[in-house]
Design brief:
2 copies of one chain form a homodimer. By secondary structure, the first copy, chain A, is an alpha/beta fold. Chain A folds into 3 domains: 129 residues, Rossmann fold; 159 residues, Dihydrodipicolinate Reductase, domain 2 (2-Layer Sandwich), CATH 3.30.360.10; 81 residues, ACT domain (Alpha-Beta Plaits, 2-Layer Sandwich). Helix content of chain A is 35%, strand content 24%. Chain A starts with a strand and ends in a 10-residue tail after the last strand. In chain A, 57% of the residues are buried.
Chain lengths: 437, 437
């Protein structure tokens, strides 16, 4: 095949600009690797006049991105606009309906409408490439759909949001509270002016829903993801975690159990020696446990123009080579929405921090409540003394049911000797998964 | 496509047995993921009577593996025999010449004959899958040929031999010497009775030549790999490395420079905080630096039945889905042997350990020789005192040319005050590669 791959790029922001630059920089390399020239046939963005530092000569400008999606001389549409609704969704739908494959970095769109779009794509015998939607340049979607396709996936989990990981890393290194570190991250451009998409875990939850879909051949089910962000993590919790041998990360975890699909995003304590604990700053890391392969780990930059462009172009290379995979790893007619496992049925270990009045008998009250819910204490730290006043108590538990833990914490929080709402952070032991054979 | 993929497996040892078990265990999963049944049509191994714990009913037995390779009802041949010559090579050649794709875990075969076999494969419009040949179940070949195909690769390096990594890890943890730890590894089955393939770096060099080929679209050139094993690493060097903030790993490093392809396998000191330093025991880890993606890291089990079977089956899944990639990432007619960069032109930092007579002036002699070769000292440790007798001196250098270092060490070794041949270990700083954009 020496016919060119004619590409339309919709959106020329950070990611779109990066894709444009990569395609121009590596024109010869891409042709050598695929046997086909890559041609940027058209682009579309909100403002034609904005200075982007891109040489757009010889590239058709489309004021209307939908016209780009319909254009007969465009073979593939890169949707790099973003957002789960509106023009991005319309663009993708239009391109697919016109029999054009789509490559996108849009996690929100796929997390909300992935099943429907996968069916539309396959009805028109094309596919959607979305490597760039999860973990930036790390080819983890390819690992899940292809490289580990011979495995039943036991669990997939990871650090999926670089902003949160940067903030948590800085909080640990500097001992400063969330608000201060967030403000600094905003100054440095690592966090948005409105940071809630990142710090409240929504972005990570979008990505987790997509990873789960690829791992288990299911429709993405964003609505079923249990989501907690990092606003409540304090320097005190980080210090206690270090003392206990853990590091706090915003994790996304997906696991298909016999009772349903567990999907959760929340701050978690991971052991210092776990590979994922070493993933610091703006880096992302994903661990995939397969029954034959055992534990595999993937790390790299989770965002930015270069890494995201690398992933977008990887999907274009696949298309140029004639590779056409089902969007979520199984044919769309077999895609089903998952049965969600309610978070109350999650089983795991817990870190609990309480601010209590320092007087005899308080600990007995707390221990009795935990006992009544069949929760056993693994470790307890009560270091400071402040007779008659408030001191922190930290305890960790053996494996317990989340539902029982939530009820117990409600009761503990209602004790008159407990001065603040209890803080709870889940602990993930992440023992190495050995291969089955 | 609902026609079955009819598989022939040649070799039923650890890996072949693992592939057989995986295909049987995940029959439904593989069909769901590819839309095609996977059928084990035939097997071949040396002894039919050997007990392997495999249910071979319904599978045709071939005493002659070449008959399996020629059989018209076999669509793909898995070569899991091993060895760079003899029956494995004949089998692969026969299968390709009969227009059958081959999937293999055989790094020796491809490192020696990869270019020739790639051309034969493409002449018959088929391909060779070799994910299992490097780093076990970690899909790093897929990452290089596909997931990072939009990047110029700045460097690829990794821990490619689990036996060596296990030995080095154990030496560090126990302080015991190489011979003792090797003997223990042999008892535990982590090292072969004849360990030289592993501990002398040959196996890692095979894998490195293949990674370099995939990264740069070149013929594998095993003969040009500079190879040193781990027999000379001592507990003393490991202790000094820890003190200096480094961990000693057997590394394979490939880098295409303007003067040629650098390929080297040798013990190296890597900073504690580098992700690759955290890859311990039998695990493998590979780092790929691309100009757009920046640094990406891949970790997992590098050997064993399950992980290797996972990789073999990933290649079978690609074939079942109709994916057919050029063997080394570019069409075979464009494959060229690399221009090797001689090791003498390598530039890097060095750790040097000397056993010298403890008397004034010795250090001045050594420093003068280094100065004469334009090698500058970065740090020096001379801790013990033993006037008139032997004491160890350790020094590390700034970046220097290997050729100059080798000459300097020859001259230093010839000094009468230097009691043993100097020990040299290269230091790899591995600063994070930022993306280009």
């Amino acid at each position: 095949m020496t016919t060119p791959l004619r590409i339309g790029i919709a959106g020329l922001g950070t990611v779109g600009g990066g894709v444009f630059r990569l395609l121009r920089t590596h024109r010869e390399l891409l042709q050598a690797r695929t046997g086909r020239p890559f041609e940027i046939r058209g682009v579309s963005a909100r403002s034609r006049r904005r200075e982007r530092g891109l040489d757009l000569s010889g590239v058709e400008w489309f004021d209307d991105p939908l016209a780009l999606a319909r254009h007969p001389e465009i073979d593939v549409v890169c949707e790099l606009i973003g957002g789960s609704e509106g023009i991005a969704r319309e663009l993708v739908t239009t391109a697919l309906a016109h029999g054009k494959p789509v490559v996108t970095a849009n996690k929100a769109l796929l997390a909300h409408h992935g099943g429907e779009l996968a069916r539309l794509a396959e009805a028109h015998s094309v596919t959607i490439g979305w490597e760039a939607a999860v973990a930036g340049g790390i080819p983890v979607v390819k690992a899940l759909r292809e490289g580990l396709a011979g495995n039943r996936i036991r669990r997939v989990y990871g650090i999926l949001n670089g902003t949160c990981n940067y903030i948590l890393t800085q909080m640990r290194l500097t001992g400063r509270p969330f608000d201060q570190v967030l403000a600094e991250a905003q100054r440095l451009g690592y966090a948005e002016a409105d940071p809630s998409f990142d710090v409240d875990g929504i972005d990570a939850a979008h990505k987790l829903a997509l990873l789960a879909a690829a791992a288990y051949g299911l429709e993405p089910d964003f609505a079923a993801v249990h989501v907690e962000g990092i606003r409540h993590v304090t320097p005190l919790d980080i210090a206690f975690a270090e003392e206990l041998g853990y590091r706090i990360k915003l994790l996304g975890v997906a696991r298909l159990t016999e009772h349903g699909l567990e999907q959760r995003v929340h701050p978690a304590m991971v052991p210092h020696e776990a590979p994922i604990a070493q993933v610091e700053g703006v880096y992302n890391g994903v661990t995939v446990e397969g029954d034959f392969v055992g534990t595999t780990v993937y790390e790299g930059r989770g965002a930015g123009a270069g890494p995201t462009a690398s992933a977008v172009v990887a999907d274009l290379v696949d298309l140029a080579r004639g590779v056409r995979l089902p969007v979520f790893g199984v044919p769309a007619e077999e895609l089903r929405p998952p049965t969600p496992l309610p978070m109350s049925r999650h089983e795991g270990c817990y870190y609990i921090r309480l601010q209590v009045v320092d007087r005899p008998g308080v600990l007995a009250e707390i221990a009795a409540i935990l006992r009544d819910h069949a929760i056993s204490i693994e470790a307890l730290i009560q270091r400071a003394r402040n007779p008659g006043r408030g001191v922190p108590i930290v305890l960790t538990t053996h494996e317990a049911r989340e539902g029982a833990m939530v009820t117990a914490l409600d009761q503990i929080g209602a004790l008159t000797s407990v001065l603040e709402p209890p803080r709870m952070i889940r602990i993930e032991p992440f023992a190495d998964g050995d291969p089955a054979v």
